[in-house]
Amino acid sequence: MTLLHVEGLQAGYGSARVLFDVGFSIKAGEAASLMGRNGMGKSTTIKAIMGLLKPDAGKVVFKGVDLTAAPPYRVAQAGIGLVPEGRQIFPTLTVEENLRAIAISRGKWTLELVYNFFPRLSERSGHLGSQLSGGEQQMLAIGRALMTNPSLLILDEATEGLAPLIGAEIWAKLVELKTEGEAILVIDKNIDALSKLVDHHTILEKGRVVWAGSAADLQGDPDVIDRYLHL
Known about the structure:
By secondary structure, this protein is of the alpha/beta class. The protein has a domain at about 1-75 and about 195-230: P-loop containing nucleotide triphosphate hydrolases (Rossmann fold), CATH 3.40.50. About 35% of the residues lie in helices and about 30% in strands. The chain is built from ten helices and ten strands. It has helices at about 40-50, 70-80, 95-100, 110-115, 120-125, 135-145, 165-180, 190-195, 215-220, 220-230; strands at about 1-15, 15-25, 30-35, 55-60, 65, 80-85, 150-155, 185, 200-205, 210-215. Strands 6-7-8-3-9-10 form a six-stranded mixed β-sheet, with helices on both faces. Strands 2-1-4-5 form a four-stranded antiparallel β-sheet, covered by helices on one side. A hairpin with a 2-residue loop joins strand 9 (about 200-205) and strand 10. Helix 3 (about 95-100) packs parallel to helix 6.
């Protein structure tokens, strides 16, 4: 069953067009990536999906419901959870307050289950968001998104700025989520880590889809990696 379908998406900022007919689909239980060099439209695509940016054309359909230009609260209510770039946790709230702040009681994820999934958050439940390390903040951002009990989890720059050891821990947790049936869309540059998680990639170049295929297809095509992903 197709969970998310994006078709002909065009969007930008003022008169500056950023996206040109972007399209891709994600099925229930799948993990997918959105890849490309910096400034190619990945985060703009996520903003358009989440209702943070009104598209100029195209459509965003989730679970068969047209969410094109729907406000962010409706997108969240529909079942899309976002782990935003830069984490954006509440620095003056405790870990537990961050987790409870946007919780939606409609599925399996509870405070106890998030603490079991990320034991470090349980250990620091009374600490303010500003007192956490970068890795702990990313765990908190993921845990907060899970507390909305999403059908699709979107991560914008999943491990950006994290130490390799912490990044590897985050990747392992994402693989665990996928194994449990969570659908995931992730933006990241780590091809090796993504290959262990995602079923298919979509690559953007200057706001256009220039390549789409499986993880195996991408690993077997170094020309595509050199042309669209390497600096």
